[in-house]
Prior knowledge:
single chain, alpha+beta, HU Protein, Chain A, three-stranded antiparallel sheet, two-stranded antiparallel sheet, 4 helices, flat
Amino acid sequence: xxxxxxxxxxxxxxxxxxxMVDQALKGATEVITAVTARGEPVTISxxxxxxxxxxxxxxxxxxxxxxxxxxxxxxxxxxTPLKGYKDALLTPSLAPKLAKGVWPPAPAPAxxxxxxxxxxxxxxxxxxxxxxxxxxxx
Length: 138
């Protein structure tokens, strides 16, 4: 599911306008990104925790030569799924129920084409491999 599909499904499930859902989703991601960039964690209860992790500088070893190597300090993103999300993932009966037709979306009606579809080619059926089966039995 990509962003546009998420927006459409959320709008259909909540009964909202897709533009409003898109603006809300964009706003939520911007706030989460800005707050975690400052080093403060953001927790959406029952779903996930977003945090920045500062890794200090340390000494490591080159696996090929065994020589010591200095590894510089870095910042990493950490997203931790919380209990409600993990429970729904592992036990689908605990997952929220979506409105009918929200996901998967109904297929779009096929356009009538002016050209006829090419006829399917028939392939010759292969003969059974009797010799190979007999050779294996010996």
